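User: My notes are a mess, but here's the protein and flavin-adenine dinucleotide's SMILES. Can you give me a structure?
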Amino acid sequence: MSSEGGKGVVVIVGAGPAGMTAAMELLRQSQLTPLVFEADSQVGGISKTVIYRGNRMDLGGHRFFSKSDWVMQWWQQILPLAAGDAEPSTALRITYRQQSRIFLPEIQASGESDAVMLVRERLSRIFYRRRFFDYPLRLNSGTVRNMGLTETLRIGLSYGHAQIARRSPETSLEDFLVNRFGARLYRTFFKDYTEKVWGVPCTEISSEWGAQRIKGLSVAKALAGAISRPFRLAAGTDQRKTETSLIERFLYPKFGPGQMWEEVARKVAMRGGQIHLRHRVVGIERKGQKITAVMVKDATGSQRRVACDFVVSTMPVCELITKLEPEDVDVLRIAQGLPYRDFMTVGLLVGKMTLTSRQSDPRSDGRMPPDNWIYIQEPDVKIGRLQIFNNWSPALVAKPGTIWLGLEYFCRQGDELWSMTDGRFIDYAAGELEKIGMIDRRDVLDGTVIRVPKAYPAYFGTYSEFGGVRAYLDQFSNLYPVGRNGMHRYNNQDHSMLAAKAAVGSITGVGAGKSEIWNVNAEDDYHEELDETS
Ligand SMILES: Cc1cc2nc3c(=O)[nH]c(=O)nc-3n(C[C@H](O)[C@H](O)[C@H](O)COP(=O)(O)OP(=O)(O)OC[C@H]3O[C@@H](n4cnc5c(N)ncnc54)[C@H](O)[C@@H]3O)c2cc1C
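Assistant: No problem, the inputs look usable. Here's the predicted complex:
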């Protein structure tokens, strides 16, 4: 064993939700010392909160919800619910993606504490044809009015046609979607958004992928369900009633998701764990089937060797494999062929928004839409979603009276969007928002750009051969790849935390071993809906 703390050292690569959970649980459950190395200058990973001139940005809009009681309680122990948002021991129904669960607030913050979670009501709508559509879409008078009766009928006819004249063989995602929803609905709602999100034409994505992943295309699914339902009913197809009246509620740290992980970091340090920011793990030493040390480079560029007994890695699995230098070149090929989608978000501070009366909503305060976020379905702009941070938590906004927005783009590192200078990109994004009638560019007060590489591990490329990578990694007795990019799995925070918990269980000998880690989030194939975008 290594000498640190006398009981052994666990190197944790990455201070995102997975790494921080692993550090905290090791300190709670063992005498081992966690040494966390984080390349970034702050903790939280993709779930960090970025502060720009006092305004706080959430990269994506992170709802805190889990089916796991363990996770819900864990979060509450770190950040209790704000006084007034819930009564202790009085059950609170929270609903998320139309799944409902009863949550028992056990701990409540006292008085004016800022270290709290808020209970938020979700509202998000679709913006298409310069109008708002409900999300999930309902086939009500508002929708027909927005779409127009003629267009609604055309979609119905096209759906009917697709049911009679099916595309065969069904090879591409386009075939898959047209066969199920009709060409018109596909072109209206699926094609542009799917291609915007993944950056690949639907004709180049396999239909099999659609069959596995269609659950993820939630905007499209909602639209398809709502619009095709009456036609399917007319055709006599059995259709279960869906309950859409439940209000979705989720938990949200007052200062954004990063507050959770900053608070965990504070507790980890208090208990003797070490967190080294601006420290990148650049190399891994192995002897036989054991990792013996990692090479770490700090912000000054100086490098040192850190001996360890265990490694919990949340770095992208392609980087981990490259650093392990496998003898089998096939393992390297698979790892390096794993695709990702990258993400950019512009924080835009505006004095006001310019929604027309047609777009106004009784739930709005008149200055901004009432939504937490809005799906931008307009084909003439590249923006994918718009976050209204004021509606996540007013504490994210520095100056009362201003509106703090997040303009989200799906992109690829090095592409046209990614390569724009920050100034140009802010201009471009503000121009898009002006084009769709949401703001007047003269009301823009300030802006910043955040680039998030590898935001989405994608399930094409060599992903179907991922078993080869897993088998190689499983050979190492003291190496635990966990988390979103660590396992190349479309994890939400809770899945990353559960994988970290399983890794700690395996290290301390109380868990069910490495298979428990891989089983997290394996049964529900696409929790995180990309266009909902987590
Ligand atoms: C747009 C968007 C919206 C989302 N919405 C939600 C939501 O509503 N709810 C939810 O629960 N989840 C959501 N998620 C998912 C959530 O962000 C992730 O599940 C979570 O952050 C993953 O945690 P992690 O620790 O596995 O990985 P990460 O957050 O990616 O953290 C990994 C860390 O490792 C560090 N690192 C990598 N390589 C090295 C190295 N070599 N050396 C040192 N450090 C390294 C990185 O800098 C990073 O800090 C969303 C994600 C996105 C992109």
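The two ends are 39 Å apart (CA to CA).
User: Great, I'll file this with my notes.
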